[in-house]
Amino acid sequence: MVDIDTARNLVGIIGNVISVMLFLSPAPTFIRIWKKKSVEQYSPDPYLAALVNCLVWVLYGLPMVHPKSILVISTNGSGAAIELVYLTIFLIYANNRQRLKVVFVIVFELIFMIVLSSVVLTVAHDTKTRTFIVGIMGIIFNIMMYAAPLSIMKLVIATKSVEYMPFFLSLAALGNGVAWTAYSLIRLDYFILIPNGIGSMFAIMQLILYTVYYKPTKKQMAARQAEGELGLSEIAVKRESRSNRQASFNMNNGDNSDMYKP
């Protein structure tokens, strides 16, 4: 029979895999940004929230804060590195106003982490107190990470389109929330249970929206494509018409210079 610690570690490893999938799920979005050299209507908020969330949980998992939490460090350390890559791409292709906002938030998050780490490691003198302080911060920022797409959900409802709400991000968020909820229940840890339980509900809401607005989105995109093709056809017809009128004018005025052009 598998003991509790072994079961918890197994679930934690599964949680690590799903978490990395969650962090990598926006990759197609950033490939699109890179190819189009524009951030379009994509928001940096989910990635900024994910970055500070990962940094807080790395601090939470340190042995001097919350012992026996190496799996918490591994998943969130990987996540922080991936989010920094995303934000770097966003900074390259964002406009000046967006770029300034992202830089300001990143600097603020780093200052916050320095202050939090200093306070926790100097003022609090035992792991129980340190766990409580960082755990409360973890709950707040984890909920912020899961709630960050709410602004995108508002856009989805307003436009009746899920074009800018990546499906795999929502799906991975649900898997991640469920895995870490299970991890926290095996050896009860409210600081991990609360935010991941709430995160699972947010992810379900996003998937419901995706189901509702998927077909309208396909129709909108098809209509835009048709309009684009029609627009190109109209341009071609107008150019051909102008060319024919010019040729007729030249012939009527005895201009045959084009005959001698190679």
TrEMBL record:
Gene3D superfamilies according to UniProt: 1.20.1280.290
Superkingdom in the source lineage: Eukaryota
Similarity section: Belongs to the SWEET sugar transporter family.
GO biological process assignments: protein homooligomerization
Record's function text: Mediates both low-affinity uptake and efflux of sugar across the membrane.
Subcellular location: Cell membrane; Endomembrane system
Protein name, entry field: Bidirectional sugar transporter SWEET
Start and end residues of each stretch annotated as Disordered: 241-262
Keywords assigned by UniProt, alphabetized: Membrane, Repeat, Sugar transport, Transmembrane, Transmembrane helix, Transport
Biased composition range(s): Polar residues: 244-256
Main location: membrane
Annotated source species: Erythroxylum novogranatense
GO CC annotations on file: endomembrane system; plasma membrane
Pfam families in the record: MtN3_slv
GO molecular function, a single term: sugar transmembrane transporter activity
Residue spans crossing the bilayer: 12-34, 46-64, 70-93, 102-125, 131-152, 164-186, 192-214
Membrane topology listed for this record: Multi-pass membrane protein
